[in-house]
Amino acid sequence: MTEARNDLLLRALLREPTPRTPVWLMRQAGRYLPEYRATRARAGSFHALCTTPDYACEVTLQPLRRFPLDAAILFSDILMLPQAMGLKVEFESGEGPRIAQPVRTAADAARLPVPDPEAELRPVMDAVRLIRRELNGRVPLIGFAGSPWTVATYMVEGGTSKSFSVIKGMAYAEPAALEALLDRLTRATVLYLNAQIAAGAQAVMLFDTWGGILSPDLYRRYSLAPMTAVIAGLVRERDGERVPVILFTKNGGAWLEDQAASGADALGIDWTTDLGRARTQVGARVALQGNLDPCALYAPAATIRMLVERALKSYGAGPGHVFNLGHGILPDVNPDHVAALVAAVHELSAHA
Ligand code: CP3
Fold first, then answer.
1. Is domain 8-349 given the CATH code 3.40.50.2300 in the classification?
2. What is the mean pLDDT of residues 21-49?
3. What pTM did the predictor assign?
4. Mean pLDDT of the chain
5. What is the pLDDT of residue 260?
6. What distance in angstroms lies between residue 329's CA and the mean position of ligand 1's atoms?
7. Which runs of consecutive H residues, i.e. helices, occur in the chain?
8. Could you confirm whether 31 is annotated as catalytic?
9. How far is the CA of 77 from the centre of ligand 1 (A)?
């Protein structure tokens, strides 16, 4: 039997009225779940999870079995794309991803191929199709990619960074090299997200984790402009339904009005930005997604409930809010606290 279709997420992203606020959580599939750790151990590595559709589908569905979440998000990683462009990405547990031969010059950038997703990223596309089949309409599936800027930070720095001095140095000293890289990533990201949409993703999100380390000028030029170009290239309707786009710049609260003009349907915001004030700034142009501090999940259930209530009040009445954290769930969070969060959103946001 087909279960009742829950499209609250898609409606809220399009600022249509919903009977309650939909909720999903960044990194809802991940190490805080013992069943994720078990599947990862069986798969042998994080990389094997991402490149084996059965495993990717399994871990995507795990949090939905535990919690009444309103969306699934494809289990993959933003660094699958640079890998498909020929870079060797290693996910060492504990210290984050490493890229052994980073991109440093315009010639390096010019050598990067723009991959055909159904060829070089086939396991991801197969995972999208499999997850849609398994979900059977229960909740929508979100596809995603990193923003060109954020993916470029890993490709240039060779991993994560504290100062981002290599890529920022490139922005100031060798802008043509950075622009060549961002141009390739923009084209690759359009193809990648459109392929996810064709395979069944019902909404897509751009993760701009590192846009917030830039000056306003460089943010507009190197983070927001490529995202705007990606969004302009996306297929926005599939099977007669609009495919909403979410743009999330972590630490990007100072530039919400610019983001609202990007063509995105919704903006992700983190906990450093006040939800109510953000809403005043963007008005009716976009929906908002966020924004509880992931560390709030260390609090006892009663506190979590109070914080959910505060966030819902801050957004206020009316459509256009998707409840989420301001960034991913941390690996040492107690799953019972996630249950308390989801239950609180369901209860406290319901209106007759
Ligand atoms: O949200 C979800 O549940 C979907 C899955 C997802 C992952 N990564 C799985 C993952 C998504 C949407 C991402 C995006 C991603 N990956 C981003 C943007 C969002 C963010 O978190 O800022 C970034 C910057 C990456 C790059 C990346 N991948 C880093 C920095 C790390 C190491 C950090 C860490 O948590 O260990 C990864 C690995 C990674 N991606 C894990 C997961 C579940 C942990 C892998 C493991 O050890 O099992």
1. no
2. 97
3. 0.97
4. 97
5. 98
6. 10
7. 8-13, 34-43, 46-51, 53-66, 80-84, 106-110, 117-120, 122-135, 148-157, 165-173, 175-199, 216-218, 225-232, 256-260, 275-282, 301-315, 335-349
8. yes
9. 6
